Amino acid sequence: MTASLVYVLNGPNLNRLGSREPEIYGSQTLEDVAALVSSEADRFGLTIDFRQTNDEAELIGWIHEAVDRGADVVLNPAAFTHYSYAVRDACALVTDGGARLIEVHLSNPATREEFRHTSVVAGVATGTIAGFGSGSYLLALRALTL
Ligand code: DQA
């Protein structure tokens, strides 16, 4: 099913973009990313629900909400990527239900510390886009139009 509603969900510490390790994540704030995502979504005719939380349970609740609404999901799980089986299992509900889930990262975790080389989400994602800064989110939206 191709849903025109897309949840764009962001995990912990991404609310600190702009001041958090700018040499890795750049100088754009999450609000900047949200604005770019919003204008790209308009171009593609997608309806976006853009959110961020530092709370694992809240993130899982939002993923369940996306499942219930039949929405596709663009997810930057942030550090949950590397160890949260609970987030992974929630992501599996999205793809098991026939919607798409694209894992995105601003940085390329494969080039960073060893613990970032593992994604417990990747195995249940439709695909992963990493290393393009805010462009990773825009590429994910583009992927959803294919
Ligand atoms: C990140 C990469 C993760 O390893 C890290 O924990 C983050 C951000 C990224 O977007 O590059 O918080 O998901």
Characterize the structure shown.
The chain is of the alpha/beta class. The protein is 37% helix and 18% strand. It has helices spanning 22-25, 30-44, 56-68, 85-96, 135-144; strands at residues 5-10, 47-52, 72-76, 101-105, 127-130. α2 packs parallel to α5. The longest helix is centred in the first third of the chain and has 15 residues, at 30-44. The structure holds 1,3,4-trihydroxy-5-OXO-cyclohexanecarboxylic acid.
Bound molecules: 1,3,4-trihydroxy-5-OXO-cyclohexanecarboxylic acid
Question: Can you identify the CATH class?
Answer: Alpha Beta
Low-confidence stretches: none
Class per helix and strand makeup: alpha/beta
What share of residues is helical?
A: 25-40%
**How would you sum up the global shape?**
globular
Series of H and E elements: EHHEHEHEEH
Summarize model confidence as the mean pLDDT: 96
Q: Cα-atom Rg, whole angstroms?
A: 14 Å
How many separate domains make up the residues?
A: 1
Give me the CATH fold name: Rossmann fold
- Biggest β-sheet strands, sense, barrel: 5 strands, parallel
| Number of strand elements | 5
The assigned CATH architecture is 3-Layer(aba) Sandwich
Number of helices: 5
Distance between the termini: 12 Å
The CATH superfamily appears as: Dehydroquinase, class II
What percentage of the residues does DSSP assign to strands (E)?
15-25%
Sheet with the most strands: spatial strand order: 2-1-3-4-5
